[in-house]
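Run log // design_07
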């Protein structure tokens, strides 16, 4: 699929399918990152804390959310980066997340023939509560004139 810079319109939006977070997700992510903080790994310790249960790593939720949005490959666009990343509320084992993506803005890039598209990425749990928000910046090729 090719979607050029000119084809992106502010307010265009799309939604992803859901993905349920499992204990296995958390354990594998801890092993991959070395983040074995008790908030993620120690059920008994968590019972003494305000949320009283283990929570997923914010970086795990970010990674899964990004993966959920990658349903189609756009041959003329690539990720330029992410900004304003916030972990708004915790995600627990058994929670199901979904992602809404909306075009926030677009602008020319200093590299001729390319533009920047900014997507607002909002991740929700099964209660439709925002758990993560960020901006995804795409470097997108312009149509040849």
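design_07 sequence
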């Amino acid at each position: 699929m090719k979607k050029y810079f000119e084809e992106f319109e502010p307010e265009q939006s799309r939604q992803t399918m859901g993905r349920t977070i499992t204990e296995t997700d958390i354990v594998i992510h801890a092993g991959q990152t070395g983040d074995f903080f008790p908030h993620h790994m120690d059920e008994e310790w968590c019972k003494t804390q305000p949320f009283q249960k283990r929570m997923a790593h914010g970086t795990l939720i970010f990674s899964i959310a990004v993966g959920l949005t990658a349903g189609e490959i756009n041959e003329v666009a690539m990720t330029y980066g992410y900004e304003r990343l916030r972990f708004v509320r915790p995600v627990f084992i058994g929670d199901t997340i979904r992602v809404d993506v909306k075009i926030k803005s677009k602008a020319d890039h200093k590299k001729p023939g390319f533009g920047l598209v900014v997507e607002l990425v909002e991740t929700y749990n099964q209660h439709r509560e925002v758990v993560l928000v960020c901006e995804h910046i795409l470097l997108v090729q312009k149509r040849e004139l």
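DSSP finds four helices and six strands in the chain.
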